[in-house]
Every structure is written in structure tokens, then in C-alpha cells.
Amino acid sequence: MSNPSLLILPGDGIGPEVMAEVRRIIDWFGDKRGLAFDVSEDLVGGAAYDAHGAPLSDETMARAQDADAVLLGAVGGPKYDTLDFSVKPERGLLRLRKEMDLFANLRPAQCFDALADFSSLKKDVVAGLDIMIVRELTSGVYFGEPRGIIEEGNERVGINTQRYTESEIERVARSAFELAMKRGKKLCSMEKANVMESGVLWREVVTRVGQDYPEVELSHMYADAGAMQLTRWPKQFDVIVTDNLFGDLLSDLAAMLTGSLGMLPSASLGAPMANGRPKALYEPVHGSAPDIAGQGKANPIACILSFAMALRYSFDQGGEAARLEKAVETVLAQGHRTADLLGEEGRAPISTSQMGDAVLEALDASL
Ligand code: IPM
Ligand code: MG
Q: Which Enzyme Commission number(s) are listed (predicted)?
């Protein structure tokens, strides 16, 4: 049988440098654990625009559809800010999500013990935090029609449409309930049913799906109150399910609870393919960080942990995923810190590749 295929799209900014460390980790699993992948690389975002005039070529899109899993670094940068909307680097990412139909975006926010002091919140509020945000990723205001900027009288009007069908709500709700069953059996759904019809429907459908999961304790919150509760006492949550835009905001908020955006991975999952694996794209929650790109300062952990999620959700290698996550925990406990993980401590940070070295050492030590 041939090896499972991994398509790597490093993208822009710090994407290529953090992905270089992930490549070493992937090789380690091939050498030491007999988990070999057929790895290939391609362009996305600004890098693809520079090469082809589009942030994702049709060829790359087709390769992503065929891959067993896609691993993406980051897209975007100031150089592309003035481009037309239709060819902005972000459109490459949105096209992948939409055409692969990756409707369930899993964004864990976990606080590593070694970093609890680093959160802007008090230590007892975040220590041991382990929540999962499930963000709907292929619909809502990101994709709803009509959209655009139109002329009306003597001024322009910007229009976007929040739109959710029942089936779109149902499938992401089901993913969230399934996850809750494997975790703490608590699910909180967030919308704005007090002002939005789409929120009313969201709440109704999630409640209906919940009847199939009587063991899961389901609650509902308005998304603004949810944001407040996330900063007040985040440990009250286990799994949160929410729409595309609220999920974008709430997942950044949840991420920062843990101390650094440089730590958090994500998985975007769609329907099962013929081989039973879900369509899947894995990417760090952080962006392309153009201000530090190319300087070896970036923290590769979010991207490394994204590969751990790939091991778990695409390749049924939960044990090996846990090995990699444990290695990251060890490295942090040992005190290894990239620049984003240092406050005003006056210590010299380690580089991107030194962090990669440390994780590889911890992996060796795990054998
Ligand atoms: C994210 C990002 C993206 C989004 C951008 C880069 C299009 O913020 O993945 O959270 O808004 O979804
Ligand atoms: Mg975002």
C-alpha cells in the first residue's frame, strides 16, 4: 500500500520557516516510528500570487482535493494589502476551505502549565485550561450573498450577508456533539438569537441535534456574553460551537487566554473521502506575522501541533499525536522559549530552528 499523502502549503511570512521545522518532525516520525508520508509542497497566498497571479492555482486546488491531508503555514502580508479583493492571499485559504467543504474548524485552546504565568489573565483562571472551539467554516457572513460595495444615491454601501441553512447548522452541530462525547460531555452553543434570525435558527437546530446526544449537557449563550464569560472564567467551558464570524473572533480570544497565539493549532474537517479519512486541512491559528518573517524568531509550535492534530484526526494515530504533544510540553517545561513566549524577563529567546531541535530531542527521549 502506498504511503498517505501530505500536501504542504507553507504560504507567506513566517509560514515557510515554521513549516521547515514541521518537515523535520514529519521525517522523524517516518524514520523512528515507521509512519512514512508522501510529502509534496506547493504555493498558496501571496507566494502563489507572485508565481501565478492567483492566491491558489487550479492545479494546487486539485492536488489539495486529492491529498490525504493538507498542512498550511500562513497567508498574507503588507505587500498584498492593496491587491484587489479577489486575489488577496486570504482568498487562497478561503477557496481551500470552501471547495474542500471543510465545515468544522476545530480550535483547541489549551494552557500549558509552563506558560500559565504568561497569560494576561490570572494564573488560576487559565492554569489547566483545555477547551475546544468548533467554528463553522464554510458559510455564514464569510460567503453569504449578496455581498459587495454598491452605489446607492450619492454614496456607497458595503454589504455582506449572514446566511445559514438548517443542514449547514446541523452538520457542524453534530461534529461538535461528537467531540463533546469524547471530551467532557459539555457543549455551549453561541450565537446572537436576540438580534439575528440566523441565530434563532442556529439555536433551534442545535437544540434538535442535541436530542441525539442526551449525555451531552447543552447550553446556549449570546456570543457577546460568551466572549465575556471566556475571559471571566474560561474553565466553565468544554466544547463551544459557533458560526464562522463569531468563531473567528472567539477563537482569537480563547487563543490569547493561553498566553501566545504561537502555540495553537487547528484542524478543518469535511466529509469522509472514499478512503474513510475526512477531507482535512491543518493550520496554526496565528497569521503570517510579516513583522518578524525571515528572522528565525517565529514559534513553530502551533504548526507542529497542527501536524499532531493531523496524526490524530486524519491518520488515526492518537498515540503518536499524544507523543508529539507531550514532547512539546516537555520542551516548554524545560524552559525553551521563542521570543513570543518571553515577557520582560530579559532572557535571550531561542530561534525557530532551535525550538525545532528541542522538540526533536524530546521526541528522541520519548522512545
Ligand atoms: C483565521 C483567519 C482567517 C479568517 C483569515 C486569514 C481569512 O483570521 O483563520 O482565523 O478570517 O478566517
Ligand atoms: Mg482569525
A: 1.1.1.85
Is residue 331 in some structural domain? yes
Counting from 1 in the atom list of ligand 1, the atom nearest the Cα of 75 is 6
Distances (CA, A) of 188 to 109, 194, 207, 222, 226: 15, 16, 11, 10, 9
- Tell whether ligand 1 has an atom less than 6 A from the beta carbon of residue 224: no
- Closest CA to ligand 1's atom 2: 248
- Ligand 1 closest atom vs CA 251: 10
Let me know whether 274 and 243 are in one domain.
no
Nearest ligand to the CA of 287 is 1
Contact 260, 299 (CB under 8 A): yes
185 is catalytic: no
Same domain, 251 and 282: no
Q: Is 93 in the pocket of ligand 1 (CB under 6 A)?
A: yes
pLDDT tens, 316-363?
Answer: 999 999 999 999 999 999 999 999 888 776 789 999 999 999 999 999
Note whether 323 and 363 are within 8 A (CB). Answer: yes
Domain that holds residue 188: 130-257
- pLDDT, one tens digit per residue, over 202-238 is 999 999 999 999 999 999 999 999 999 999 999 999 9
Residue tagged active-site, from 142, 213, 282, 313: 142
Is residue 83 very low, low, confident or very high in pLDDT (cuts 50, 70, 90)?
Answer: very high
Q: Which of 42, 68, 164, 192 is catalytic?
A: 192
Q: Clarify whether residues 59 and 145 are in a common domain.
A: no
